[in-house]
From TrEMBL:
UniProt similarity note: Belongs to the GcvH family.
Signal sequence bounds: none
The protein's required cofactors: (R)-lipoate
The UniProt record lists the keyword Repeat: no
Annotated GO biological process: glycine decarboxylation via glycine cleavage system; protein lipoylation
Description of how the protein assembles with itself and partners: The glycine cleavage system is composed of four proteins: P, T, L and H.
Alphabetized NCBIfam families for the sequence: gcvH, PRK01202.1
Keyword field: Lipoyl
Bound cofactor: record note: Binds 1 lipoyl cofactor covalently.
Keyword Oxidoreductase listed: no
InterPro entries: 2-oxoA_DH_lipoyl-BS (IPR003016), Biotin_lipoyl (IPR000089), GCV_H (IPR002930), GCV_H/Fam206 (IPR033753), GCV_H_sub (IPR017453), Single_hybrid_motif (IPR011053)
Protein's UniProt name: Glycine cleavage system H protein
Transmembrane portions of the chain: none
Amino acid sequence: MADFPGNLQYTAEHEWLDTSSPAVIGITSTAAEALGDIVYLELPEVGASVTAGAVIGEVESTKSVSELYSPVTGTVAEVNQAAIDDPSLVNAEPYAGGWLLKVDVTATGPVLTADEYSALVGG
C-alpha cells in the first residue's frame, strides 16, 4: 500500500502540490514508479504562465514519455535545476528533492486529498 503525504494535494493526473507560497509541484511516487527510470524533464521557464489542467511539460523515462499537467493557474516562480540536471531525483525523492517547479498561484484546479488519491490509484 502506497503512503501519500497527508499535507499535500493531488490530481487525477498524478501531480502533487503543497499549500506554500509559491506552491511546490511534483509528480507522485505512483507516477514515478510507473514511469521507471526518469532520464529527462521538460519544464516551463521561470516567468511562464501556467493554467490548471493544461500541459506544462514532459517527463521522459526509459519506458515512455508522459505529459505533465498543471494543478494550478499562475506564474512559474522557480524550476528545480537539480532535478533537470539529475532527473533520477524524481524517482528517488518524488516528495522532497525531486520536486519540479514552484508556482505563484492565482487559482487551483480540481485536487484530491491523500486519502482520495490513494483510493483513486488503489493504494
